[in-house]
Amino acid sequence: ISFSAIDSALSALKNCQSYINSGMDVATQVALDLVESSNDEEDINNMEKVMLEYATMDRELNNYIKAFEETINQVKEERPENFPDLENLAQEKFLEMQSQNSDSDLQRNEKYMYFKDQLKEMKKQYHGSGTIEQIDEDIAVTQSQMNFICPITQMTMKRPVRNKVCGHVYEEDAILEIIQTQKQKKKIVRCPKMGCSHVDVKKSDLVPDEILKRLLDSQKKQ
What we know:
2 domains, nucleus, Herpes Virus-1, 8 helices, mainly alpha
């Protein structure tokens, strides 16, 4: 059997993950559109179910890939005289991983967490809330999001990304350029927002700020 053929098959499976990620991105956009246009709870809940289905597929695909990778590495290390049935070995590992699954795994899916976070912020922006405490929180969120100026370029942002660690927002191209430049110098990146104490900004910390992007687009139209 050719290990290169197996590696090629695993690479193809990993490509499937990009389709799952794209599907989750589309589902998030549709849910935000629903909040903005109609706030139909049933339709929004349906989109959340879609996100959980995608998260389930992503988990199963990850487990399958991991099971095969562990099996191949094990065989390469042990080098048995009689070549084992890789498919059966991988299937056993896969079933063992699947038996340890729980609903909380899906709740921790990064794109699902992003979906919930953006949905919550979108509802605050477009539909307000009932209590004084929540209204005060809404005002604070609105005021923070109305700051459209990037702390790096000092210009109005076009593609804002939010730092998951400290919550500050930057123009995507500007922060990525800083991260890349500092990486070449083998230096860490301090958050460019004045007064922020976060000193190790990573590309993996950045997520698109869909709410701010929509506010920016709305302002342009006006």
